[in-house]
Amino acid sequence: MTSENTKVYTHEFIDIRGSNRANYVHHMTANWSPIAQEERDQLCYGVWGVIGTTGRWPQVVNMWEEDGFDGLAAGLEHETKSATFQDPKLAKWWEEAATYRSGGLDRVIVPTPWSPTISQLCADGIRGDVYTHEMVKVPRGTARDFLEIVAAEAVPVFEPFGWKLIGAFRTALADDSECILLWAIESMQAWAELEKAATFGGSVERWRKRLFEVSESNGRFLMRDAPLAPLRLGRQPSRADRHEGWADL
């Protein structure tokens, strides 16, 4: 039984320039995450590359674990109080990051109390060979209720296929109508088996019908985590993981 999760998370969709996805994910995990840990108490929850056949490409999904809204506020204050709206000390980091990405879209998301933190996931040895990112639109004001339905009704259906729900979130700063589910899947074939059952009828059909009742739309795509992502390493990225030229930061 995990303790209640009181963190909040920064969730980012990042559009990559050309063939720079590998460069970008290394820059985020090895060069940024150690700074974030030391200066902002911000932990890397995950950095994934979207598998293009199933979603937008070339795209990366980043998630950062903040110490509640107080921790997020402190981090935003630290980041944006200068005239450039960026931490001047990180000018070199921003300059390199800009060569790898063209833009993105961020949101603040709030976990269910029973969602494990990244430290709990690493301690338990949880990881997937592949991950599924699912976004669900629900009627306004019902996001909390929907996530409890997922725990009670979807998880028992998905787990026998080798899918584990590692995070269930609702989007903040909005009208409580958007949810994000993250599933760790034991293999690509395990993903295929569930999708077949959902598409052609079978044990997943009951959940599909229930999903249509309680949501307005949904969609999911596949991701693989970066080489230095916490769920792959079993720990947070460290300064020792940095490439040459960043050891002095």
Descriptive account of the structure:
By secondary structure, this protein is an alpha+beta fold. The protein folds into 2 domains: 8-108, Alpha-Beta Plaits (2-Layer Sandwich), CATH 3.30.70; 118-225, Alpha-Beta Plaits. Helices cover 37% and strands 28% of the residues. It is built from 8 helices and 8 strands; from the N terminus they run E-H-E-E-H-H-E-H-E-H-E-E-H-H-E-H. It has helices at 21-40, 68-80, 91-100, 118-123, 143-158, 188-200, 205-214, 230-233, and strands spanning 8-16, 43-50, 59-66, 101-111, 130-137, 163-171, 178-185, 217-225. Strands 1-3-2-8-5-7-6-4 form an 8-stranded antiparallel beta barrel, surrounded by 5 helices. A hairpin with a 6-residue loop joins strand 6 and strand 7. Helix 1 runs antiparallel to helix 3. It is globular, with a radius of gyration of 18 Å.
Quick summary of this structure?
37% of the residues lie in helices and 28% in strands.
What name does the CATH topology of the largest domain carry?
Alpha-Beta Plaits
Structural category is alpha+beta
Shape: globular
Strand content: 25-35%
Q: Element order, helices and strands?
A: EHEEHHEHEHEEHHEH
In whole angstroms, the N-to-C terminal distance is 38 Å
| Number of structural domains | 2
Characterize the main sheet. 8 strands, antiparallel, barrel
Organism: Pseudofrankia inefficax (strain DSM 45817 / CECT 9037 / DDB 130130 / EuI1c)
Protein name: NIPSNAP family containing protein
InterPro entries: Dimeric_a/b-barrel
Layout of SSEs?
Blueprint: E1 8-16, H1 21-40, E2 43-50, E3 59-66, H2 68-80, H3 91-100, E4 101-111, H4 118-123, E5 130-137, H5 143-158, E6 163-171, E7 178-185, H6 188-200, H7 205-214, E8 217-225, H8 230-233
Antiparallel strand pairs: 1-3, 1-4, 2-3, 2-8, 4-6, 5-7, 5-8, 6-7
Organism: Pseudofrankia inefficax (strain DSM 45817 / CECT 9037 / DDB 130130 / EuI1c) (Frankia inefficax)
Protein name: NIPSNAP family containing protein
